[in-house]
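Hey, quick one: can you model this chain's 3D structure?
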Amino acid sequence: MQKASQMKVENLDHLGLIAGLIDEIGIVQKINELVGEQPGEIVSPGLVVKAMIINGLGMVSAPLYLFSKFFEGKAVEHLLGTGIQASHLNDDRLGRVLDKLYLTGITEIFTTIALSAAQKFEINTDTSHLDSSSFHLHGKYEQELPSVSFSSIETDSNQLDNSSINHQTSPIPIEITYGYSRDHRPDLKQFILDLICSGDGDVPLFLRVASGNESDNSIFASICQDFKNKLNLDSLMVADSALYTAPNLEMLTNLRWLTRVPLSLKQAQQLVSQLNESEFHDSAVTGYRWSEHKSNYGGITQRWLVVESSLRREADQRKLEKKLKKAEIEGQKKLRELSNIEFACDTDALSAARRLSTELKYHNLTQISSRQSTAKSHANSTSSDISSSQLIFKVQAQLELDASAVAKATKASGRFILATNVLDASQLNPDEMIVKYKEQQSAERGFGFLKDPLFFTDSVFLKSPERREALTLVMGLCLLIYTLGQRLLRQNLQLTNKTVKNQLGKGTNRPTLRWIFQSFQSIHAVCIQGIQQVSNLTSERLAILNLFPVTCRSYYFLL
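Sure thing. Here's the predicted structure for all 559 residues.
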């Protein structure tokens, strides 16, 4: 039996996969190049970011203020380098690195790393998807911190002479404030995260942080331009209806775009409610039909594709039935209120009834007339008042369903409009427009991942606005690592015609990386008398490891 002092057992689990993917992309080196290293640092900024990503994808809800605790009992030296201990990853060191990341520029760092990763992993960037989401924060945040300055070198806290330090003022931080909450928490302050993902594997390519009250309509076009300038990609930009405004379209003349037309536009409303069934063509995409039209909205020549979804049509019709019932109840209530109003003349009564009829969306007032009566005298009225009592008029009418309005709404059920400035259908045909817009879920899935309860940034708690922004860079890098790893795994399974067992024990060639992470639990790095080994590598785990790069395998095979 080995003595305890001669044996050391540490958890490795799936963290070697994460560390290997980080190494494969070269994140540590790129961060150090962009941020800069200082002589005497035990843990470089790049290694700190690597540790943050490992923490973020550790699949345990370990908040940043317990960061060093997360690495207790884990193979820290094996993952981060000889001599590095969990105690070195303290909150002071993390804070300093977050400050440096912020000063260097969050978007600049992320796009540099993401573009390099996209090239290395041969990510298809023909289509990119833009979306935004809000991240709420708990706390009052009544006064934001002022802009701070950071020194270009780190000095000893006891050093008195700072005259040689070159100070640089930070950019103005975002404002944590109230705004439209995608989390349905309007009671909490928030910030906004803008994300652009590739349609190939949901891989994030661009990240931007904004104030909590920023409007998508006002910023989406400039984000598209910034994305094109920074990454120099001729990508079809896909976005939701927030992009579709006349000023935005005017700004996007040098970009190819595909977006949804908001049905609040009168022209769009008329089109979806007036098209007959015979004007639609069956799509190659199951469950869809389309009808193509030309438009010059905002002075920009474009193609409009009215799309009808069978599933959405059924859902819309169920919603319409509920709307009609609600509208009838509200209409009857308004009619009762109107019937109790006393008018001085017949004309006023009839005019009020007609106004109400035009305000009703799905109903009309019919059999409109006025009922004449004498105004009631008050108990304290004098005899002269009674003798001079006036005639009053009250509305009488019936509430009936507006058949034409219901017919238009029924026609519009399940229909939406896609617009693009790609005028040549041979470059982007109707079926491709539908497919590429459906891929807009890639950005939505990214936000779903970032808001997962197991992800350590689900609850953002840092009080410094600069560090909150820097933390979003770590969030984005976690998403980058996860999507690249999942895409690579699925790609290699398909190329080798292999499968792995899913949660039900059945073979699949499209597993989630989360499931692979879970299946790698209880793998340990064991050191016995100075000889290091990795335990619990079953044949199934070994087969999975062979689907990942050698940088991942090296943490388990000790290459």
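One thing worth noting: The chain is about 40% helix and 20% strand.
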